[in-house]
Amino acid sequence: FQRNRLRLPAPIPEAQKVTGRLSFTEKGATIQNLALSTLGGAARLSAVTRADGKLDFDLTGVAESAAIQAAFLPAAMQPLLSGRSGYRAQFRIGDGLEQLTVRSDLTGITLNAPEPLFKAATEARAFELQLTPSAEHTHRLALSLGADTQLALRLDGQAHILAGALQHGRQDAMTLPQQGWRLNLAMPVFRLDDWR
Question: pLDDT for 22-32, tens place per residue?
C-alpha cells in the first residue's frame, strides 16, 4: 500500500493514507504495523489469519470524538462527546464483522452526560465498547465506564435504540429488556429529568 484507502465491513470506518505491506502465505493474509489515518487521527493496523480462515485485526491510534460518534454511537448519544484520545480496537472479520472491542482511558475526552456518566477531559477513566452483530440485523452495544458503570443498547440496522439498560454501583449481570429501558442503580440521587 502507498497512501491508499482500505475499506472494511461496517461500522469499521474507512482508512486513508494507508502505507505498508499486506503479505499472503498458504495460511492466509498477514498485516504488520500498517500506517494509516482513521477516526480523525493516525493509527497502526496489524492482522493475522486464524486457523478457521477468519481475520483478527488489532488497531491502535488516536481518535477524534466526532469520528467516534459517527462510526459507533447512535444519534441520540452523539452530542455527548468532545475531544480526542488514544485507543486500541480489536475486531474479527469472517463473513462480515463478527465482533469488535474498543478500549481507552478516555484522557482528553469530555463526556457531557448526566451522572453517573459525566467525565471531564483531564480525568482518566477506563472505557470499553463491545459491539456484537446478530443474525436478526440488530446489534448489541455494551459500554463500560470505570469499574462501576455499564450501559447496554440494542440497536437496529440504522443505529436506532430499540432497548437499553443502565447499571451503576451494582455487580449484577446486565440484561436488556425487550423494549424500553431498565435501570439498576446504587447512587444517592438519580435525576431522571436530566436524561430527557
Answer: 888 777 888 88
Of 144, 15, 113, 118, which is closest to residue 71 (Cα–Cα)? 15
Give the Cα separation of 57 and 34 in Å (integer): 11
Q: How many helices (H) and strands (E) does the chain have?
A: 1, 14
Calpha distance 196→13 (Å, rounded): 30
Q: How sure is the predictor about 1, in pLDDT bands with cuts at 50, 70 and 90?
A: low
Cα separation, 171 vs 166, in Å, equals 12
Compute φ and ψ for 159, nearest 5 degrees: 65, 25
Q: Which amino acid is at 177?
A: P
* Distance from C-alpha of 185 to C-alpha of 187, rounded to nearest angstrom: 6
